[in-house]
Amino acid sequence: MTLTGSRLLAPGEPWQNWGRCEAATPLHVARPSSVDEVVEVVRFARDNGLAVKPVGAGHSFTAIAATTGIQLDIAAVEGVVAVDGNRVTLAAGTNLHQLPALLEPFGLALANMGDIDRQTVAGATSTGTHGTGGAFGGLATQIRAVTLVTADGGILRVSETENADLLPAARLGLGALGVLVDVTIECVPAFLLRAVEKPERFDDVVDTWAQRVADTDHFEFYVWPHTDTVLSKYNTRLPVTADRRPLSRFASWWEDDFMSNTVLAAKLNLGVAVPRLTPPINRFATRIVGDRAYTDLSHEVFVAPRRTRFREMEYAVPLEAVPAILREIRALIDAKGWRISFPIEVRAAAADDLWLSTASGRATGYIALHRYYREDPTEYFRTIEQIMISYDGRPHWGKMHNRDAESLRGAYPHFDDFVAVRDRLDPGRLFGNAYLERVLGA
């Protein structure tokens, strides 16, 4: 079957990511529904000198999925492929929000999750998506095997027993090594989380940051600029047989929907229109959000709805550097006279051994900066990025940053090992684009 004019290729159409900070117009769009069709698209691209880039939910804030060649929409390549004990093989286009229903019949859950679940499994793992917890790694650390369609049109299985030397690269591959068509994830028995959320003083939390990370299964907090208050979140793991006490429907709607989306959007729009109102609005917000406790299934606690569009930059830094960096950021906001409506998100993760993981080789703290999509984040992000770099920070691969291969090489001990795997699997850069050229080199 030829691809031109077939159901596999359609004319390209303008594409934007969720944050509305990246756009592209591919020559073609392909929507395969099977691995065989992915292979067919890749071979067509190779034979016709076109780059091919998979695209998932578009939740990366970088141009990692942008292309002027063939955009490969993997949404239809989804679902459970196989289950072997706690190991579940998922098709790459499966969205994270589908997993609770897919895993429930097997009594399983992901060991850890971030607070957004719109991404595809492939997109989330390939860019280093993570949650929080000093003893837990990012989503890619839960991978035990992957299947790639490679530049030669072949299918490559990478696992602990097949091509094992490629596993540290393939588990977090930036889409640079091939088209990910499935991943095998080590799940855990389903569990509950006891959630305690409350406002606290900035100094109290920051001064004891490392201890709170060590003492709590999943600890994170949000710093509200122009205030001395943070919103802390403590999540403790419990067996699924423990007493489940979820939020009432009204309480969930009030905090997670109305306050965190409707009211937040109104607050941000007011801040855009009248910036001088941002500090008092932030102070008011710290008095009416948070301060609740409940127990529910893990995904109901980890994940929250995020419908207000924003742009984000997140840096991974040594765990112990977080307090000093936060104090520098607060001093800089005051010195610059910036008006920052969005809180700063602070999380933690365990060290891992993935070559391009932002937590590779060290216990890690994450500091994420956000700006409303109607505001220009350039000065805020660029200036604070220099602070992050001074503390040996590593940018999240799917969030806005200005680093290039030359500067990133020194941040990752295995950077050149990854590039060597890329050279081996995709010497012609079939899966390349401008973003990968910038961060990995030509």
UniProtKB/TrEMBL annotation:
It holds the Pfam family FAD_binding_4. It comes from the Bacteria. Its EC number is 1.1.2.-. The keyword Oxidoreductase applies. SUPFAM superfamilies: FAD-binding/transporter-associated domain-like (SSF56176). This is FAD-linked oxidoreductase. It comes from Conyzicola nivalis. Keywords: Oxidoreductase.
